[in-house]
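I'll show an entry:

:::
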Amino acid sequence: MADTINLSDIFSYDQNFQTIMLNMLQTALDSSFQGVMITEAEPGYPIIYVNQAICEMTGYTTKEFIGQSPSMLQGKNSDPKVLQELADKIDAGEIFHGRTFNYRKDGSEFMMEWKIVPIRGMEGEIANYLAIQREVRDGELSDGSLDTKLSI
């Protein structure tokens, strides 16, 4: 089995290589089919980055997202148990994975599945949160495959 290299090893190369890798990561986030959101790890979790996929999913522009709380997407049918689990996992510094109803800018609801990962700084402190989000359509399982039922 070949040795693996992690991202911190990759970024220890020369400055040009670091720039290439940063550009590659930026392109990956910007080009993802999944919605990507990055927030600060402070009260209200102000949004500092969203990609085009989340804008298309929700109808909000990047400018409308920046500085806001992700809770702007929640509404009357957002499951309070899921939101409590989210809060508990974040408070514990753990990864969260769940789904609930969220709301687009036009007020229409959609089922959203998301995973939130804490991003730690050099001292191990949580500096940001990275959220990967997608709309779950009727009949779709959490792995992205379709739940097909065969009649026999």
About this structure: Residues 15-31 form the longest helix (17 residues).
